[in-house]
Amino acid sequence: AQKVTQAQTEISVVEKEDVTLDCVYETRDTTYYLFWYKQPPSGELVFLIRRNSFDEQNEISGRYSWNFQKSTSSFNFTITASQVVDSAVYFCALGAGSYQLTFGKGTKLSVIP
Amino acid sequence: DTGVSQDPRHKITKRGQNVTFRCDPISEHNRLYWYRQTLGQGPEFLTYFQNEAQLEKSRLLSDRFSAERPKGSFSTLEIQRTEQGDSAMYLCASSHPGIDSNYGYTFGSGTRLTVV
């Protein structure tokens, strides 16, 4: 069975602070994919990144960066110099063994101006 | 193509009534998925279609739920005899069966169902 744990339910930061959202996953599959999605108040899920299990290179995209560590089954997401527009619920998700995604419960990020 | 469309955006219904939601995927996407998201939770998988064939169904999809995708284009999700526990956001997603398409979903904006 697949499982994704996002231990942080809610995080509040002041604008321009850096923030890291944690994600820990469980799977017995050796081939799998990890994702982060953003869900603003409007409700749609916005794709941020996909990584496969064979690529542990960290990735940076503008103010966003992702740290994938297979040794600790973690796929953490860091926002540098946070902005009010970053306020949303962020979901980590795992795809393995079938076409369905297993999502974590999400972390609500509030960036205070 | 403007993405995955879902209709209606919001639905309020009385307990015991039947409701039907529609999803129009991106036209070249042959895979279509339904997820349910309750308040404070992540989306949970309900079912998956490849073209018109329903290939996977979650245990969450009780006998009161039925999904169809006639002709492999749009899909409908019907809930019969709605219960208050059915109140949730119902999300549709589609993906293209390309080489690098693993889980390359595009989600719609969802249909928010409230059962009163």
What can you see in these coordinates?
The complex is a heterodimer of chains A (113) and B (116). The radius of gyration of chain A is 14 Å and the shape is globular. With 113 residues, chain A is an all-beta fold. In chain A, 0% of the residues lie in helices and 53% in strands. Chain A starts with a strand and ends with a strand. Chain A is built from no helices and 12 strands. In chain A, the strands form 3 sheets. In chain A, strands 2, 5, 6, 10, 11 and 12 form a 6-stranded mixed beta sheet that branches. Chain A has a 4-stranded antiparallel beta sheet with strand order 3-9-8-7, with no helix packed on it. A two-stranded antiparallel sheet of chain A has the order 1-4. Chain B is an all-beta fold and 116 residues long. Chain B has strands at 5-7, 10-13, 19-24, 31-37, 44-50, 53-57, 65-68, 75-79, 88-95, 106-107, 111-115. In chain B, the strands form 2 sheets. In chain B, strands 2, 4, 5, 6, 9, 10 and 11 form a 7-stranded mixed beta sheet that branches. Chain B is globular and about 40 Å long. Classes of the chains: A mainly beta (113), B mainly beta (116). The A-B interface holds A 4, 33, 35, 37, 42-45, 47, 50, 52, 91, 93, 95, 98-106 and B 31, 33, 35, 40-45, 48, 55-56, 58, 89, 91, 93, 95, 102-110, 112.
What would you say about this model in short?
The complex is a heterodimer of chains A (113) and B (116). With 113 residues, chain A is mostly beta strands.
Largest sheet of chain A: 6 strands, mixed
Task: Indicate the low-confidence ranges of chain A by residue numbers.
Answer: none
Task: Please identify the oligomeric state.
Answer: heterodimer
Contiguous uncertain segments of 5+ residues of chain B = none
Biggest chain contact = A-B, 23 and 27 residues
pLDDT averaged residue by residue of chain A: 94
Overall mean pLDDT of chain B stands at 91
Q: Describe the biggest sheet of chain B?
A: 7 strands, mixed
Query: Over the alpha carbons, how many angstroms does the gyration radius of chain A reach?
Result: 14 Å
H/E element sequence of chain A: EEEEEEEEEEEE
Structural class of chain B: mainly beta
Provide the β-strand percentage band of chain A.
over 45%
Residue share in helices of chain B?
Answer: under 10%
Work out the strand percent of chain B: over 45%
Q: Say how many strands of chain A there are.
A: 12
Number of strands of chain B: 11
